Structure formats: structure tokens, C-alpha cells
Amino acid sequence: MVRCRPRWTRWVEATLRDQARDAAAQGEDFAVLAFAQDVARVFGPGAAGEFALDREALRRSAERGDARDLSAALVAVEALATARPVALRLLSDRVFTGADPTALLAQRVRDGATFEALAPPPAELSDLALVALRTPEAIEAGAPLSLLAELVARVGTDRARGDVPFELEVQANEARTTVRGSIPRAAALASQPWSVRIDLGAVKAGVTSARVVARMSGSTDPIPENDALTAEVVTRGSLVVAFAGDERSFDDARAWSRAFGALGGLDTLAIHADELAPKLDVLDALVTVDLDPRSLPRDVVASFVERGGGWLACGGYRLLAGFDDERADALRALLPLRGDDDGDARDVILLVDGSGSMSGAAFDEVRGAAPALLGAARASDQIALRFFTDHLDAPIALGSGGASEKQRQDALAALLAARAPGGPTDVDAALSALAEERGPRRSLVLLLTDGRDQRMRGATAERNADVRAKLSAAKATLAVIAMGGEADLEFLAELARPDAVRRGRDAGEIARAFESELARGRVRDDAPIRVLSAPSSNTTSIGAELANAMRGISLPALDRSLRARVRDGDELVLLDEQGAALLAVRRAGGGLTATFASEPSAEWAPAWRDDVGPLGPLLRALARARRESPRPRAQIENGALTLRDVPSDWPAMLEARAFDLASAAVDPLGSAQLSMPTNGVAVDPRTVRAGPWVGGNASDARTVELRLSGAGDWHATLTLATTCAAAFEWPERRVGEFLTAGPNAGLDAGPRAPERPRPHAAGPWLLGIGLALLLAGGVLGATRP
């Protein structure tokens, strides 16, 4: 709303001044509340004559979310109200999200309040939003595929007449096309959704990924984030596997996606890890490429596997980091293999050269690599930062490995605040002092220095050897990161073993050095590592079948692998020539999981990046487990929750509660009591459960988890993902039509049913700016912060 009205703030300020002047003339108190995701007090309560607009408070309110929770604002009004009469003034276009405020408004009027909605000036800039992209629930390979794009146009004063022309840029897999048309002016003026059919021709077997971008022809685009949507359509019979990576491993994930897609029988796509949750419902199997299990949406992935999904976790350092962390229990319990490590507690000491050559930009590179250090450390590791010059500074605690997000943020804040002291350095003296301080606990010392000028300070081979002996006696392992492009590599190699010196010319190199050193002893890197199939077995287990399928195949060697071992219930498929586990599978609920103790990267397993044939049977087995299990689907629409494709053994009566997975809130978004339909369905009613939805707009969340319960201890979990743009999470709703011009219009008869929910074209994330609720007369107290 704000970005379509450049003069919005000016109107708000003028209106507030007018209202304050009227209240002052009547000797009334005055308060201003702004609401978006939260409610903020902008002024008062206080004497209207003292009103001064807090523009900063108004701006902060706009930054608190992409919603317009009018009900929350009315609850805040209730908390402020006294016995004196209250006059409510609403500065808004009447759009709201969350719970319907109709009943609350009507109750306030019945309690004696007066109410008036003050309409804002018309929008000056026009905008077009793509609010939904509808796809068929099921389609056969070769059938014509059509999508339905729902557009909402908001017409500003810059488009005084005529219909609203648009262009839809469509990309479906590799094909591109453009659809042109126009929205009738009457529909645009009413902000009514306008549906446009997009014909894509015969659909191929597997998954079709479509992306649509909407443009209003001949106009600026004040809200670009509501223009684009993507959707996936899966044909019956295909096995769909997604390969997920992050900014470091996505190229490897994409390479594997292409290689496996060429095998036949598998349809593959590469996705970024942060897109994982909304896409799981169309997948049969998931492959994560060097992703820390702690970074995954835990409940969503666990539910996917429990309901029959397949999951292959492969990786190097980051998979290893979360492998044995107790905070990843829900996912760790699903995966086979465990890290082969003694797990003894240790101190990790970040020993940083504090000289002038290491200050400024050089230490900024260390800060940039800090997240890798905190992520790679084990839960039992205690991490500290220490500077040194010609003496050793006091330690700065950075917490433990496997820490919570808050603890990691605190550690990063400590690093940001730290400053190198400056001055000449004596590396040997600092290390000797550190060795003398050490107690019985073992430690890993990560020395970050350029090593320059140490010969001038008396560093010799004999002195370096003496330092190494002292560190060894103190149970301290030294690893050196040679900082910058002019480091004295000869001195540093003499100080530590040659394979313990790594370059650190930028944050990326430093991060890789952190990961490598923290994992030392837990990773095998004596390439080539031979790969063998597990010993022959007469059992008919899935692990034995996969091992037998790989027997006789020339399996590529690895350059690196995690040192791993099987646990009870794991089925070994591949191992190295030393007998260590490389690949195992495990049954988990209705699904099948696997862990591959390497990753398809140039550093770990370059030969496996393209030669994926040996793993083809594994991917098919993972995906087929999903196909053989029921896949119930959920939809919230028109005030009702409906479950389809319900398994035959589910209870007839269910209770469903919805939770926003991206929110820290513990209360559900809403609930429904579900039962089998008695008529009006064209499918077996035993496969359907439906019931009225009670609560707020559950679709405001990007990813919703439905927790189902039935008779006895029966329970299940389903995940829903929105199909609307980020700026149009789901359709917003308007306060009922009683909100017409004039005070209390239509409210004296009590609450009326609101109009049918519909999307609105205003950009939600700045909607809090200027959405003010004016309270005049007897309104005292505080609002929610």
C-alpha cells in the first residue's frame, strides 16, 4: 500500500494532526497505535494538545512483518480502554491479515465506542501481482498441461483509463514463452483476481518445473517481489529425486542431478537447501550434498521420511559436523552410520597474531571464516580466541561447538568486537606460554599468523623443536594457517609438521582450513581409497540386494571419506579396503535412508561426480519406498480443511492442528475436526477427511505443519507449502462491508459475516507504515511491544 502511494506519509501526518487538534478542542486524551505483524504505540496515551508524531516508531512498526493484524490492534485497544467513551479511527484501506476483526469491532461499538474508517488517498502508482499459480493435482505423461495464473491489478492515478495490459513470461523446464492479455478495468478497480490460462503442451514424463513472471505493460513496478511464482507438476509413474545443496555445494548437487537424470527411470532436479521444505511433497527421494543435518528443516524432513520418502545424505566436513550432535537427534536417528571418533572433550584455541600486519583487513578475513569454525566444531569442543604479540593475551570465550543459534550469534558478536592489540610478535614465546598454561584437557591450537620477522627475533630450528615438544607434553595439537600472500612458509613449516600448514589468503581458504583441522582424525584422505561392495549375503534385505547389484562393477576410488561405522539396524552396502563403512541404508518409518561417507566434489570424490551408475539402484530403491507408501495431501480452502488420499487404516475421526514451522510461536494457527464426507465426493469417501477450519489464516505461513491425532495414541504429521509469492503469502481479506463511510455504519446490529476472502494487490511487507488506529478519550495503558 505504501509503495503505491508516494505521498502516503504526508497524508498520515496531516490526518493525525487534524485528529489530535479535534481531540484537544474537546479536552480528550489521545493515542496512536500502528499495526503490521505486531502492534506498536506511536503516541500516548496523553493530552491531545501535546501530540508529536514519532516517525521512527512508525517506521519501525512497518519493518516488523508482512501482515496487517487488525485484530491484534483491537485487542491492544481493549487493554488500554477505561470506563470513559472511546472514539476509534482507522487509517487504512481496510485490508487485514490474521483473524477476522469484525466481531471485535462490533463488540467495541456495543460497549459504547464510536468507530469511523478514514480512507487513504487513491493509489498513485499501479501494480500487478501474481497471487497464485494453480496446477493439476495429477496428470499423465503426454497429456496437455495447462496452468492457471491468478493476477490482481491495483490501478493507480497513473493509469486513468482503459484496461490493464499484462505480459506473463513463462519458463517450463527449458522451454520459454510469453502470454499477453489484459485485465478489464472494472475487475482491476475492484481488485478482483483475474485468471489466465497458460497452455504448455504435452507434458513429459517426470517433473515439469514452471516459473511465471508477471509484468504490467507500460508501467513501473513499485512492488517487484509479488511478480513471480514457481510450481512443479509430476506425472504419474515417474520417480522424482531432488538434489539439494547450499551456496558451496549447489554446483555439485546440480552435477549429480544431471548425471542421475541421464540414467533413465529417474527424474531429477537441483534445488537450493532453503527451498527444501515447500518442495518435499512432490518428491519421492531427497539427496542432500554436504549439508549439516542441523541446518535442515528437521520436522519436515523427518515427516517426509516417516511417510515413505527416501533420503540419501552424502558429504564431507559439514555432514560430519552435525553427524553426532545431539541437537540433530530427530534426523540423526533416521540416518545410518556414525562418526568413528573417540569424542573426548577438547579445547579449540584460535591463536591469532596481534601484530600490525594482521590487523584490519587480515582479521576481517578471520571474522568472515568464523561461522565455519563454529559449525565444524563438535558439541564437546570449547572454543576460545586469544591474541598474542610478544606475550599472550587473555582468552575470549566463544562458546562450544554445536551451539544454539543464539550462542553462535553471541560468539560472532564477540569476534566482531575483538581488536588486534598491535605490536611486535614472538610466535615461539607465545606458544611456550600457552603450553605452560595448559591443564590436563587436550587441545587443538589453530595458529593464524604470517610468521614474518620471526628469524630476526631469534627463531631457530632448535627453538621451534623445543616449542613442539612443550605443546606435545601439554596434549596440544598445533595447526598453522599461513595468513596473507606474503607469509613466511619456510618458518611455519619448520614450526609445525608440513601437512599441518594451510594457506589462509582469504575467508574461504581460512574456512576450509578450519573445517579440515577440526575434522582431522575423523576423515581419511590417503587417496586413492578403494571402494568395495559389502560381503555376499544370502538374505533378501535391501542392503544385501544393493550390495549384490554393485558386485562385479568397477567402483571408482575416493580421494577423501569420513571415518564411519555402522550401528544396530544399519545395512552395509559399500566399505573401503580397511573395512570402514562407506555406504549403508536403514529403514525409517515408511521410508528408506542412506548415508554415503563422501561427496561428489573435486576435493572428495571427483570420479563419482559423473560416474553415478553404481548408485542408480540405490536412488531407485529410495524413491520406490515413497511410491509404495500412501501420500495423503492437505488443502485449506474456503474455510475448510480437506485431506485426500488418506490411507485406509487411518481413524475415521481426526483432529488437525496447524503450526507455522518458520515461527517460534507455540500456539497453533488453527484447528479442524475432520470426518469422512457423507455425500458430494466423486471418490471413495474412505480416502477423504474434511471439516471446517477454526482459527486464523493458516496460509499466512510459508510452510505449515499439520499435526493429526485420532483415537488412542494415533498421530501423524503432514506438511503444506504455500503456492503464492513472498509478497502475497496467501490472499489477504477485507473487513466486512459494514466498514463504509461514516461512523458506526452497520455495526449497531452486531457482527455480520465478512465477505469471501480475496487477495489484494498491495505489497504486504511495508503495509505497517501509516496503518494507525487513533484512540481518543479515556484510553490509557500500554500495548504489546
Please tell me about this protein's structure:
By secondary structure, the chain is α+β, with helices and mostly antiparallel strands. It is 23% helix and 30% strand. The protein has 19 helices and 39 strands. Strands 14-13-15-16-30-29-28-25 form an 8-stranded mixed sheet. The longest helix has 18 residues, at 8-25. The protein is globular. The two termini are 24 Å apart.
List keywords for this structure.
785 residues; alpha+beta; eight-stranded mixed β-sheet; seven-stranded antiparallel β-sheet
Which spans have pLDDT < 50 for at least 5 consecutive residues?
A: 721-785
Care to count the β-strands?
Answer: 39
Report strand order across the widest sheet. Answer: 14-13-15-16-30-29-28-25
Q: Give the helix proportion (percent range).
A: 10-25%
Total helical segments = 19
Integer average pLDDT: 79
- CA-based shape: globular
CA-atom Rg in angstroms: 31 Å
Amount of beta strand: 25-35%
Reported for the largest beta sheet, the result is:
8 strands, mixed
Structural class: alpha+beta
Q: What distance separates the N and C termini?
A: 24 Å
